Amino acid sequence: MENPGNIHIDIEKRGGWESAPLLQEFEFKPYYYLFQVLDPGRISKNFFTDLSRFQNNEGHYLLVAREGERIVGACAFLVSDWDSRLFGFKYGTVKYLPAEGGYQESLAVKNEMVRFLLEFCGRMKIEFLHFRVDMADISTIHSLVANGFGFIASVVRYAVESANLRPMQKKSPHVDLFQNRDLEQVKRMSKSIFSDNRFSLDSRFNVDMVNTLYEKWVENSCLGKVQDKVFVCRKGEEIAGFTTCGLRRKESEVLGKRIGAIDLVGVDPRFQGKGIAVKMVNSAVEWLRENSDVVEAIMAARNKPMIRILESFGFSWKASQIDWHRWIGEK
Fold it and tell me: Crossing angle, helix 304-312 and helix 276-291, to 10 degrees?
């Protein structure tokens, strides 16, 4: 590859990027870690389906780096309307940053692209960027460090084929489906139990706004806007905990298998240590075993109790990722 100074970077408008070998061969496509379960061709199709929205939707951007006519790098990112409204500033998310070549070559291209991205965000008044990167993507990690991104948290992805799930033989009588009368209790609980997350680990985020984020997330789950099922554990008239689960319908359609997920698991501190999380996850597992082909869960890497629970139901580790934050304007 020639000197990175010969690379031209711009917002992609002319098309033709779909056939670029760089993108066809990109290692870290969504669901790449399920290659033993999902068809590789469908994994690629899902990736390109996702990429297409970055050229066709408002607030979505696809940066492309070219050396002559050859595409040597790309960066897909978006401005999240929901997060931006909640936090009161333009909140950006980077999804992909592939680049051509070995470590040194790809690092040089990525450094150029990240610098372009930060300048573009400054012009667009985008104040914040989040990027979740696979732990094996070393050149991307080094480029982010060189350009002022901060390591915030690490997460692990666990998954299992639904047929291999191992639910408990005896279902808890205290766990059942969410009912509308439970909403206020669940919302109140959600504002105080999710303190170990990437937002709370970044002191620049307002704590009250972070609590509101989880309250809204849980409320939308209970109302069926973002999840299919919410299970609650009852202790008398009180809600001791809840878990949310559902299907990734858009991805499932492209991937040719029903992708299920366990998302939030929360237990009231007064009832922790009593096996409530296991009982609620068991109900989610039973539902997902009947309604999905593959189930995944994303957990904080240091959440050892939940990881042990997932493993007890048959889940196994598939990938580790790092959350990076960048506040625009900081050096």
Answer: 50
